[in-house]
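Model the whole thing, not chain by chain.
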Amino acid sequence: MERNILLTIEYDGTNFCGWQKQPGRRSVQGEIERALGTVCGREVKLNGASRTDAGVHAYGQRASFEGGFGIPTCRIAVAANNILSGGKNSLGAAGDVRITAAEEKPLGFHARFDAKAKKYVYKIRNESEADIFKRNYAYQVVKPLNIGAMEDAAKLIVGTKDFKCFQAAGGDEKRTTVRTVYSLGITGVRDVQIEIVGDAFLYNMVRIIAGTLVEAGLGKIRPSAIASIIASVDRQNAGHTAPPQGLYLAEVYYDDLETGGFYGQAGLG
Amino acid sequence: MERNILLTIEYDGTNFCGWQKQPGRRSVQGEIERALGTVCGREVKLNGASRTDAGVHAYGQRASFEGGFGIPTCRIAVAANNILSGGKNSLGAAGDVRITAAEEKPLGFHARFDAKAKKYVYKIRNESEADIFKRNYAYQVVKPLNIGAMEDAAKLIVGTKDFKCFQAAGGDEKRTTVRTVYSLGITGVRDVQIEIVGDAFLYNMVRIIAGTLVEAGLGKIRPSAIASIIASVDRQNAGHTAPPQGLYLAEVYYDDLETGGFYGQAGLG
């Protein structure tokens, strides 16, 4: 019988070329498809909710796939993780991706097209000294950040707007660049964490917002200038693109009546 | 003029074959010697204080080298780190080693032979769920540890004893296996940290002690049995060898009058 299975996946993006499969390179999608191929006894094609870049991490990536498989849904994660964590070596090139849940969805459900919203976390390490153990897991900013200025800037980003200024060059010119940012919060002092929830994000949007907030925190951009930067719809006016290793795909929300729906989950009533 | 320079070095051991240079493999010693060769304008041979294994980390490795170099001692760290951190790539194979200090010592001083004591830290993550972001930085123990039992066992290890039971098979049979453990402390609950200071350590001694303490914490070894395990001088009676990724070389002590000497530093008055 055909089933549609939705996976929740976490990974350390350091040693991947990104989510998407690329010939001759190690991708998250490629590693999981290979493990699922063995577990399910047939070729599997995964639809990932977000195409994270090289070095970007995930606590809660989602991906769906359809097919008629012998293995019960409840055993897929354990069996696939057994393969994914196998062959541990000193190069750390194994054990860096793990399926944390597998659940059944109606046929036709698609992890990306049916996503209602996503939450990303961006981690900044605001210390004068580097920490080699955190080099792949946060963006090191040496000069002290003014968190209040970052918060003032963040408030002006929340809402439904044309966010073209936060889209990397090379993005699709024909499609709309209007998106809704539901919330954008900043927590912590030396370990600064930016948390953003939106309906969807343009290419590199979270990293450009993080870079822009860092520049606000360093006094290079006035927080009140954010409104005119957005209104200019010009990438040149926004801040730099913060590096990939600070970015974590934290959660993907679906319209799920059983759990009270997306708005209930995100606390956006 | 000939100088003898003592370096302090920190590294993430994940992507190294260990401290010691090995042909065709990426070692900490090899990477630093290559950088210093460029910086000093001539070949450099480093004497490391500890030959850490593959996957073992260091906050405070020490290594010394002699020669007549043009570059002032105070500029060696910055210049070498510039090379060591260069060529950052998505594979995390750069920026994982850093010189944190360089100081001059009398000619003839040797980082290993003149070391008076060393401190190692062993990190255990006592949680039922794995955390892929910590897989290379701590030993995951799933079942709950009885920290009190580990502390009781630890007390019986402190002192000057024949620690042959804690030496990995393959160690030199002819040399003495008597060592002095000055202190052995355990802190934390879920993030458990073992801190051990001793005059010198046998091959894999800290990892076997960590494995033995874990077995005491799991109720597999009675804490009071430690005395007879040590007296047996038999590796078979001790616990398992805890994995390398939990181990950190924290500090190397020298007989340094200027700073009050080793005993002052270690607080062992």
